[in-house]
Amino acid sequence: MTAAAVAAILLPVMSLAQQRGPVTNLPLPRFVSLKAGEGNARRGPDLSHRIDWVYKRRDLPLRVTAEFEHWRRVEDMDGQGGWMHYALLSGVRTALINTDMTALRAQPDADARELALLERGVIGSLQSCESGWCQIDIDDLQGWLPRAALWGVESGEVFD
């Protein structure tokens, strides 16, 4: 498939308005996580395309921005990415700490007891998000973080 043919299919999908994927009918963009310990992000949606990135961190949150057959266009926190086969991705929601020494709190309140200080780059499993705070599991700890300290959840997104 030529790049022009792929672009013609994807142009309607690339808008950031709340759209649905043509394959899954799930919202675009949306967050997923890397299921495998390693995954190749390719220049296009096919094994013949060049590998641009190799992700080597299981549970890394990625944003899906487009779909084509069994392929998903993903980007990481830095806006880098490419096309990955859907089998490498999971619907399990994770988030990456994007600010250094972020306090994990016992409750969704800036004055709540501090459970731990988290370094930038730590990944945890999202449990729920509400009014500016997200509940997250990191190893054996469960607590609350300000949404602004996380990458892997949209601003204003609420889920439980």
TrEMBL record:
Domain of life the protein comes from: Bacteria
Keyword Signal: yes
Signal peptide: 1-17
Pfam families associated with the record: SH3_4
Sorted UniProt keywords: Signal
InterPro entries in the record: DUF1058
Full protein name: SH3b domain-containing protein
Organism of origin: Roseinatronobacter ekhonensis
